[in-house]
Amino acid sequence: MNRASYLKKLRGKLQRLPAHEIDAALAYYEEYFDEAGVENEQQIIQQLGSPSHVASQIMADSALRDLDETSTSTKKNVTAIWLIILAILSAPLSIPLLAVAIALIFSFGVVIFSVVFAIIATVLSIILGGIVALISGFFILTEDWPTALLFMGVGFIVTGLGILLFPVVARFIKKIVVVCVEALARLFHKITKKRKEGY
Known about the structure:
This protein has helices at about 5-15, 20-35, 40-50, 50-70, 75-90, 95-140, 145-199. It has about 200 residues and is an all-alpha fold. Helix 1 packs across helix 4 (about 50-70) and helix 4 (about 50-70) packs antiparallel against helix 7. The relative contact order is 0.11.
């Protein structure tokens, strides 16, 4: 493989990134080849590793950079997670290491999804329970007004509590997603580091 085919394969592996990031990455590697000179081309290719390996590192680094530079919107965090997962899965790994990586990603995702789902379900059930108590109070107002007032008061308190919890829970979920992205990035760097040490 020569420089031109290496860079062409690298460009093909980076298609999921924005065009300006692909151009910046390729410009960096072209400059890297230029500084090394034509006589050291094969040595540089050997040193860099396969285009898949380099592309997976670029994708993971891009995801982390986007996470650091932009506000922590949920959409950006999810995009970063997907880019890191794609980077891990596209990295040329041995079959057992790839199986372990896939199992870890899957189990990690299931646990995080379960925690987030449980938190959202709890807050929504608190709000829904308050609304049901409030409506029940209105229905029994003519039959037993002290009980109706109790139900309505509890309904207002519980609904208010649920509404107050909502922003706190939203921030907590965003924090969980950021921690997940960072953990996936660390996993990716450990996997690629072990692979490099294996050479």
